[in-house]
Amino acid sequence: MRRIIAVGLAAVGLLAAGCSSSPARTPSGSTQSAGASSHGQSATGSPVGPPGAQASGVLRLGLSQDLADAPALTGWQMGFFGQNLGQVTLEPESYSSSAAEAVALEDGQLDAAYLDPMAALQVWQSARGGVIRIIAGATSGGAELVVAPKITSPAQLKGRQLVAPAGGAQQAAADYWLRQRGLPALTEASASTSAGLLQEFRSGTIAGGWETPPLDVQLADAGGRVLVNEAALWPGGQFPTTVLVVTQKFLSANPLAVSGLLKGQLRAEEFLTADRVSAEAAIAQRLTAIGSGLPAGVLAQSFTQLTFTNSPLPGSLLVEAQHAAATGLLKPLKNIAGIYDLGPLNQALRAAGQQPVSA
After folding, report:
1. Is residue 356 part of a domain?
2. What is the pLDDT of residue 358?
3. Alpha helix (H) ranges present in 113-168?
4. How far apart are CA 124 and CA 347, in angstroms?
5. Which CATH number goes with the domain that contains 49?
6. C-alpha distances in angstroms, 81 versus 93, 158, 224, 271?
7. Does any domain span residue 215?
8. Would you say residue 256 lies in a domain?
9. Among residues 211, 237, 263, which one ends one of the domains?
């Protein structure tokens, strides 16, 4: 389940980010340490770094049950994270939404998380500002506005209801796009499951949604048509959908564990890019294990819409942040350079013979 906000375009209003959803806890035995996969079996590859180089401990990693978090799902399922953490044990926790992850980060329940970029910025701007740093990108693209088949222009959305993830990058994109066309921004309504969302769409209760895979694919399969492919709104079609964040406290105290986490992500990104069929199978297994299984066709179509990148795409994220501030989802800001710490990522990229990224 993920937090969904419905929008009544006849009324003007904004939703403050937040979610009280509880994480879907991983089953016992699903933690990872060096050389072990998520099933406790021997993993391929060798641990990075000498034994004992990293003090023992735990890395609590949050991720959402969403294909935008495919690098996290892959790294968990294939054991790529655990192979690189030395004596630190990985404890993954799956959440119903990025908003729930953000709350867990602020409450000190997580050390790192794969997060919606707007949720990351909201945590960074919170009363506990500075608690997190973006240390890498993860996923780009994928978001679409899918509407009822009879809707062919923005003007036909007047007085209709849309949905988007509460307080996230899709709400920011939808709000900005709607306001540019003289339509009100999104307003708050109750939470809904994905199944409930699809039923509401089929029944005509909602006109559509600005969603990432798999929900946009499922809306299209339910008879919807793509009114806006968000990639068309960005130079080169690139905009961040998921970023990897770590708390400043953990980053300072456990630099080698952070380095190991990033090395695991690089392996996951390589696997996702080089072997999509095997990657889809691995993700399908992980989603089923956490209770969010998908039909094979939906999973395959979703993959065609996503790009996996270690860069947090700072230029696009700054524009996203400015759009979100203009619509009230973020506090006014001049720059977001302080949220980044890309040093560990660039060290891992250079070691892998890849080009570094910059903020």
Report:
1. no
2. 86
3. 117-125
4. 24
5. 3.40.190.10
6. 14, 47, 38, 13
7. yes
8. yes
9. 237
pTM value is 0.85
The reply to whether 233 and 255 lie within a common domain is no
Domain limits for position 165: 4-17+142-237
**Pair of tokens at residue 254:** 């456990």
- The pLDDT value recorded for residue 238 is 94
What are the residues facing 134 on neighbouring strands?
245, 340
The pLDDT value recorded for residue 96 is 85
What pLDDT, on a 0 to 100 scale, did the predictor assign at position 77?
A: 96
**224 and 253 assigned to the same domain:** no
Q: How many CB atoms lie within 10 A of CB 332?
A: 9
My answer on whether 306 and 229 are in the same domain is no
pLDDT, tens digit, for every residue of 6-53?
Answer: 444 333 232 233 333 344 443 333 444 333 333 222 222 333 333 333
Q: Is 63 contained in some domain? A: yes
- When computed from its CA atoms, the radius of gyration of the chain, rounded to whole angstroms, is 19
Say whether 134 sits in a helix, a strand or coil: strand
Sequence-distant (≥ 6) Cβ neighbours of residue 252 within 8 angstroms: none
Give the chain's residues under pLDDT 70. 1-56, 127, 129, 187-194
